[in-house]
Give the backbone structure.
Amino acid sequence: MSVVSIPDGVASAGLRLGVAWGAGNQVVVHTRPGAGEEGRNMGRAGGKCHEVRWETTLYEPVFRKLVNESMGVFLSLAKLGEEERVVGVEQLVKVSRQYRSIMKDCQEQLELLAETGLASESGHYIAQSDLLYKLELIWHLVEILFLDTTPGGLVLPHLLHWVSLHFPGCEERARSVLSQGSEEPEQHAEYWEAVVKFVLQGRVEQARNLLRLHSEFSTDPFMSLDELLRKMPVCSATTSAADFEFRWRHWQVEVVARLQEGDFAAFPDLTYVAGLLAGQEDSLTRAVGECEVWYEWLVASLLYTRPAVKAYDLSVHGQQAIDKFGGLSSMTTLDSVLLAVLEADIPQVIRELCLTLDNFWFSSHLLDLLHHTGGLAGGWKEGEEGTSTVGAGLREFLLLDYATSLCSHNSLWQVGILYLDQCPVQGRQRAELLLERVAIHTEHKASKVVQMAAERGLHSVVTSTCKVMGMRALQASNTGSAMAWALQSGDAKFTTFLADKLLSEYASSGTFSSTDLLDNLGASIIVSDRLTFLGKYREFHKLVSEAEFSQAASLLHSLLWSKLAPKYFWVTLLIDCIPFLTADQVLFSSTQTYELLQCLQDLARDTTLPTKQQLLLEEHEMRLRLALAKNLALALTKEGDSNNMGQLVW
């Protein structure tokens, strides 16, 4: 546990601290009124709110691979659960082994860093490596007892494999003996320790190989023990529990008979090994000193006393093994968790892990895996009301907390959102709250937030994020970028505001700052009336540049007469009409010209125009009136000629 000092001059003996939880791994600490001051409006000059954040081991770079790869396995299992109503046992075991492989890989990386990294960090890496070793040990045991079950319910073959993987001491001793290269290897201090260790783990072939190295192997006692080891029954997937147990008892009767006949009396070490094979109490008690921990001895004891033991009987034998190693008072957290696994008490397993670890990575993934077995592999006691609901609720709680922790990290927040997708009750609401709080420093990150929110239908997050980015762009005088964000947000008011800004810029400079955006508005053009006008006005400029003067004149007239443009921009539109009014070809009809005159008249009577626009109107008004009058005359003449021609033809 670490202590954090918060410097605050206002905090004194008469004040209390208030705490508010933030999103993820953070709290906000502030001063509160002292006793008797509650409810009084007392301003405290200089008081501050202090944001306190803390990290978990998952934030360390070495654990990033663990987080990312486990996410892939988690999502593949979720997809499998959606495609198949019940996920098969073989598939669950495969997924479990993938998780264990990820843990082992991370453990090896930590060991490498401990050897090659800074000396000051070596202790930390070793501690984390040891922790991952223990977690993988727990996970493997859960896999054996809840997932990878054998026909007939025999668990001992898997338990022997579990022990051999996690207690390789016998192999190290054997290598030490062999490296000596002596003609009498039995003289090595660890020779018999290695033999006994192999026997305790049920690895009879390795034990026989060591015995063959003994200088007196050709004698009857050694040959007799070698024969017993060779004939020792081995349980396989094709063997029924009843058949195996019958062959085992028959074999063990032979072991006891040879012991009673004194076949091994001349060699105490052989007698000890034979006593283990016979399951004798005194030999097994002596083996306590050969084993590192109680669960290593438990498996060895079961091998030679109850080889057909079922999973539901392990809790009783586990308690007896603990008593051999000092009882409950000497138990560590690892011991408590392993015992809870043997007792099939999943709630206790999760409780112990949550209280011990600084994050919920292990607990959430383990419980999620068990959740896919259907009913959490029987980890909740039968007969409890709503057991499946309780299990699923705890799974979601752990996933929510784990995802929230990831979302408080600068680069892991996307992983957290993917976990929230698998929380059917509160996942969507939590994702909305957390996406709103993602610290956005770049446009790329903002785009990622918007994309993830849009994929989940979180439109409020899309709108708020786009508006924030739009305002940032606007403050940086980048109106075009601001407009792009506004269009993405779908906010009509904000889009109208920015369209007015672009019009003001054009009115001042005579050019658009974001022609590419205006040329590719598409369906977004209907978000607001002002944007519709802006897009159409840009289209007018393109028609002019393409020498489509007739279409350009018609569009310009419709923009004015529809009154989509703000009043201050009418001056600019009317000035744009002058080249069309003075062209050699009549481009405005008499009706259109009358309507343009009406717009000019309305504008001349308007006293609310900005000063700049008022001066611009005064400068061009006479020229406009003259051009409109000439065009009206030409249009009427042309229309009159057209009517006369029509009558003559008639």
Remarks:
- The beta strands are 16-21, 26-32, 50-53.
- Residues 40 and 354 are 41 Å apart (CA to CA).
- DSSP finds 29 helices and three strands in the chain.
- Confidence is low (pLDDT under 50) at residues 377-387, 645-650.
